[in-house]
Design brief:
Oligomer: single chain
CATH architecture: Alpha-Beta Complex
Strand order of the largest sheet: 1-3-2-6-8-7-14-15-11-9-10
Distance between the termini: 15 Å
Number of domains: 1
CATH topology: Amidase signature (AS) enzymes
Largest sheet: 11 strands, mixed
CATH superfamily: Amidase signature (AS) domain
């Protein structure tokens, strides 16, 4: 096989299991490509050459012995340097505070990926503790979208999205508390799905309920095709006895879901959720893209989103909820290290993170619970749409990929269409879906001057299979596989 970098995981794993392709050669090819290209893209912050080579040899020996192998046998993957724990491999959370942190355990979903035969190539860049919609930090610097190395890959799973888009991994893990799977998918021209909350179990400690603090935290796949994402979700999904909030196994075959027709589906389209300012160039691309659903047999209707809340109210609610989580994290770090984090290590923490910690410490229990009323209103508004429609689509983001900053402080725009927005998250039409736990995907919708634009696809809770079916129907009508920069 001449070029494994952009070979779909479904095909690559099949070739390896049949003995047609050597997993050792595949890993060596990817490691060589990372060595050659990562300095420009800055997707990886840690690579695991030795363990990757060992894992590839194990897969090759298993093939030679005729053993039955997992669905991801020999597939090179990347893990986000933010809760994608692999025992013995550095995990920094994008923070100088954790520059030498090495966990002694694997995340639940990492265990499942490796048990299925996936080979971890390394950890990918993230903003400090995942606090914003761009990937940049003072420890490693910005990650670029391969479509323009002067522009950001999006965040917080930007390193993972850039690695997949640039052929530095076949698929990658990402986490999502405000759009962190979907934002970089949009900026980097790849596909991601945020499954229903806790479809992918995460037996995190010391707080097993941490994923439900403030805004729902989801883990999921980033890939170049919908079928690869379904394959990865098939492996990652499922309950775990140590996760008290996980969903039971409902027996869904996610790969098979990608084969379903959407003929007769009714799809709602909102250009802005009734409140987001959106760049006209982005709006135009997505309005054109929704026609693909009609070619697939569905009907599309623009709807007025039934939510009487301003853009600022939605952003403020996300920041308040998130701030509580960051204040809790800071206190936990302080207890573990017996320090006052802001007093003794403040200079090592990004200004936006400091602001969130301070805000979170000031939030009262009453304020925290009151914001859940807004969460409920958003949930009801989305549910109202699904009483008539099978899916709801929108732009993923309100803007095009932003330029990288030189000092580790890359942010999104502070203004769109003459309206002020919060530069950390206010331009992301994703975070309101983290109030509710619904499944949501970002799919490549088109380009503006060579820069990718994503379209967000929402479906009812638990309908992860429908989200994949709608995504796959769009991909069949408007494939993007040949859109990546020169290889």
């Amino acid at each position: 096989m001449e070029d494994p970098y952009y070979t779909p995981a479904v095909e690559l794993s099949s070739r390896i299991r049949r003995g047609e392709t050597s997993p050792v050669d595949v890993v060596e090819d990817f490691l060589e490509r990372i060595d050659r290209r990562n300095a420009d893209v800055n997707a990886y912050v840690t690579t695991t050459e030795e363990s990757a080579r060992e894992a590839a040899m194990e897969v090759e020996r298993a093939v030679e012995r005729g053993e039955r192998l997992g669905p991801l046998a020999g597939v090179p993957i990347a893990l986000k340097d933010l809760y994608g724990f692999k025992s013995g491999v550095r995990q920094t959370f994008g923070s100088a505070l954790f520059g030498d942190n090495v966990p002694d355990h694997d995340s639940t979903f990492v265990e499942r990926l490796e048990d299925a035969g996936a080979i971890v190539l390394g950890m990918t860049n993230s903003p400090e503790f995942g606090h914003k919609g761009t990937t940049d930090n003072e420890l490693f610097g910005p990650t670029s979208t391969p479509f323009d190395l002067d522009r950001n890959a999006g965040g917080s799973s930007g390193g993972s999205a850039a690695a997949v888009a640039d052929g530095l991994a076949t698929m990658a893990h990402g986490g999502d508390a405000g759009g962190s799977l979907r934002i970089p998918a949009s900026f980097s021209g790849v596909y991601s799905i945020k499954p229903t909350y806790r479809r992918v179990a995460d037996a995190s400690r010391p707080n097993a309920f941490n994923g439900a603090i403030g805004n729902y935290v989801h883990h999921g796949p980033i890939t170049r095709s919908v079928e690869d994402a379904a394959l990865m979700l098939d492996v990652m999904a499922g309950p775990h006895p140590r996760d008290p909030t996980c969903l039971p196994d409902d027996g869904t075959d996610y790969r098979r879901a990608t084969e379903r027709s959407i003929d007769g589906f009714e799809i709602a389209y909102t250009p802005d959720f009734g409140t987001f300012p959106v760049e006209e160039r982005v709006r135009s691309v997505v309005e054109d893209a929704v026609g693909a659903f009609e070619r697939a047999g569905a009907t599309v209707e623009e709807v007025e989103f039934p939510l009487d809340r301003s853009h600022d109210e939605l952003t403020d609610a996300w920041r308040l909820s998130t701030a509580v989580g960051y204040a809790t994290l800071a206190d936990a770090i302080g207890r573990e290290r017996e320090i006052d984090l802001l007093e003794e290590r403040r200079a090592e923490i990004a200004d936006e993170v400091v602001e969130l910690i301070e805000r979170g410490r000031d939030v009262t229990a009453v304020e925290y619970l009151q914001v859940q009323t807004l969460h409920t209103e958003v949930y009801d508004a989305i549910t109202d749409v699904f009483e008539r429609y099978d899916a709801l689509v929108s732009p993923t983001l309100a803007c095009l990929p932003v330029e990288n900053d030189a000092d580790g402080q890359t942010l999104g725009p502070a203004e769109i269409d003459g309206q002020q927005v919060d530069p950390t998250i206010g331009w992301c039409m994703t975070h309101l879906v983290n109030f509710t736990g619904h499944p949501a995907a970002s799919i490549p919708a088109g380009f503006v001057d060579g820069l990718p634009v994503g379209m967000q696809i929402l479906c009812p809770r638990f309908a992860d299979d429908r989200t994949l079916a709608v995504s796959a129907a769009f991909e069949r009508a408007r494939p993007w596989v040949d859109s990546y920069p020169p290889r």
